[in-house]
User: Which sequence fits this backbone?
């Protein structure tokens, strides 16, 4: 760690404080990587009817939960020991909030994995998979970009993630309409389409969590809370 | 800019070198913060944030203080609001104590000290008023409790006596009691008013010094690191007292404890090598400071 010096959080007089902050950041990114993989695998398990992979995702959620607890503990200790201020304080607070989002994304992955197992039992048809794959890829990219924005403290990239969310919402609406058409065409599709709807709903939520992470990145970098703020105002904050 | 400049850039170079040696090139580079402390030179008279207020108690403009050839304060302008608690923070030698001492002309007793600029207390020029009047209006509490080697009572009564603020013994008794009450010391001291003040604990002595300062009914209380010699409990008492006193006094506190500044003050002023780098609401300073030097200092990156 010491030969890979962090230019933003690694220049305190106290080397141990540097290491604590870097450790927090690293652990958060590790958790992010794990959660990203969980979502990718869940979508893959569903669209490939891979029940083994779906079971792995279900089991993998415990690891996510453990990381959440560990990161919170680390953050609390930093506050107790160091009384961080300014950008250090914003990092610690943002991490405490963002792990909640990551943990929820982990839950959504688990939910999708369960639905994948259910769909796999019900029979081999690819109805609705195009939509799942499409939105799945989209929110997976958003999550990846929000974590990338965190790693590089890039408020501009975080803003792009927030803008993507509107498109995900539109795609979700369009997919819901398509599924509704399938259900009206043949009532035997209803059960299956409802499961797909739950999957899409879970993925749409993943996009929302990626947005929350992006908002926290902007808070860390710019020092301003952009939650519940019009997009033009957020753009102004990021552009400063 | 001025004669002190070479020393700024010399120090800046030194820090720059140290940083260059310890930070290896890394291809996954973090976004580099612009204006690292080693690169930042403050422009004289430029203060970031909000140095001015609507209803100032002190109106200080273009203040310059030198000790002989050394310029300790470089063209600082600042308002201190009525009944506000303002904290002066900054690394040792940044000028915060010097600036504090200008506010009641304590620097006058130093021969080589020259104060220039306009310093007004309620629109009256401090350096054109009588010095003892200024001292009466702005009392000072020091780092080390410095009670007189007299009784508790006489310590508090000293100021009112020499300034003739009480006509009768009963009036003086009232002043002493009120001052000790305001300083949160009455319950501990009321049964031993004739005891020597020097026999009290450090925390009690400091509160006695505060009682002594407020006994002459000042409008402003200047505090120069009032808690640095006290334990955490005594510190908490003094901080509680500051909060209570802020209802009726304007309080200026110089402190090395950033947590203390964050706890007690409404506004915080960050001094750096004789410049006033930033003045902002304390909440802003400790969450999103505007000047990179303030940020570096309060987060323990240098100082």
Assistant:
């Amino acid at each position: 760690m010491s030969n890979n010096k962090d230019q933003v959080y690694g220049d305190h007089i106290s080397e141990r404080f540097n290491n604590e902050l870097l450790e927090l950041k690293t652990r958060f990114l590790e958790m992010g990587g794990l959660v990203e993989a969980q979502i990718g695998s869940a979508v893959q398990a569903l669209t490939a009817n891979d029940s083994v992979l779906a079971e792995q995702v279900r089991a993998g959620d415990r690891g996510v939960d453990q990381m959440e607890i560990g990161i919170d503990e680390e953050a609390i200790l930093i506050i107790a020991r160091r009384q961080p201020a300014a950008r250090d304080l914003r990092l610690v607070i943002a991490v405490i909030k963002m792990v909640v989002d990551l943990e929820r994304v982990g839950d959504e992955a688990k939910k999708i994995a369960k639905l994948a197992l259910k769909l796999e039992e019900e029979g081999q048809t690819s109805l609705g998979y195009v939509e799942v794959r499409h939105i799945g890829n989209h929110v997976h990219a958003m999550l990846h970009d929000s974590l990338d924005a965190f790693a590089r403290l890039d408020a501009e990239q975080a803003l792009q993630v927030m803008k993507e969310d509107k498109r995900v919402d539109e795609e979700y609406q369009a997919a819901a309409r398509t599924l509704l058409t399938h259900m009206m065409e043949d009532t035997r599709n209803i059960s299956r389409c409802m499961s797909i709807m739950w999957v899409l709903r879970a993925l749409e939520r993943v996009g929302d969590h990626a947005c929350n992470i992006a908002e926290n990145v902007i808070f860390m970098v710019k020092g301003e809370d952009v939650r519940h703020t019009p997009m033009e105002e957020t753009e102004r904050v990021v552009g400063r | 800019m001025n004669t002190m400049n070479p020393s700024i850039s010399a120090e800046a170079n030194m820090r720059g070198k140290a940083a260059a040696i310890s930070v290896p090139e890394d291809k996954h580079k973090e976004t580099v913060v612009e204006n690292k402390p080693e690169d930042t030179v403050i422009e004289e008279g430029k203060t970031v944030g909000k140095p001015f207020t609507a209803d100032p108690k002190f109106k200080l403009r273009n203040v310059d203080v030198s000790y002989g050839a050394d310029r300790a304060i470089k063209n600082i302008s600042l308002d201190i609001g009525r009944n506000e608690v303002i904290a002066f923070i900054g690394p040792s030698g940044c000028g915060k104590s010097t600036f504090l001492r200008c506010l009641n002309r304590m620097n006058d007793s130093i021969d080589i000290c020259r104060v220039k600029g306009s310093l007004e207390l309620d629109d009256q020029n401090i350096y054109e008023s009588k010095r003892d009047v200024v001292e009466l209006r702005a009392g000072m509490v020091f780092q080390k409790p410095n009670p007189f080697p007299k009784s508790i009572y006489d310590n508090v009564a000293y100021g009112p006596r020499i300034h003739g603020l009480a006509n009768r013994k009963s009036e003086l008794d009232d002043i002493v009691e009120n001052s000790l009450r305001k300083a949160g010391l009455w319950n501990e001291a009321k049964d031993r008013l004739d005891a020597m003040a020097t026999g009290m604990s450090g925390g009690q002595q400091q509160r006695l010094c505060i009682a002594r300062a407020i006994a002459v009914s000042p409008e402003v209380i200047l505090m120069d690191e009032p808690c640095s010699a006290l334990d955490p409990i005594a510190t908490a008492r003094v901080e509680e007292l500051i909060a209570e006193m802020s209802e009726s006094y304007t309080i200026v506190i110089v402190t090395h404890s950033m947590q203390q500044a964050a706890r007690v003050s409404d506004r915080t002023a960050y001094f750096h090598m004789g410049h006033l780098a930033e003045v902002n609401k304390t909440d802003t300073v400790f969450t999103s400071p505007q000047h990179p030097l303030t940020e570096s200092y309060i987060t323990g990156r240098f100082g």
Helices of chain A lie at 15-47, 51-82, 86-122, 129-152, 155-185, 190-222, 231-239. Chain A touches chain B at residues 3-8, 11-14, 17, 82-90, 152-154, 221, 223-224 (CB under 8 Å). Chain A has one domain: 15-239. The first helix of chain A runs from residue 15 to 47.
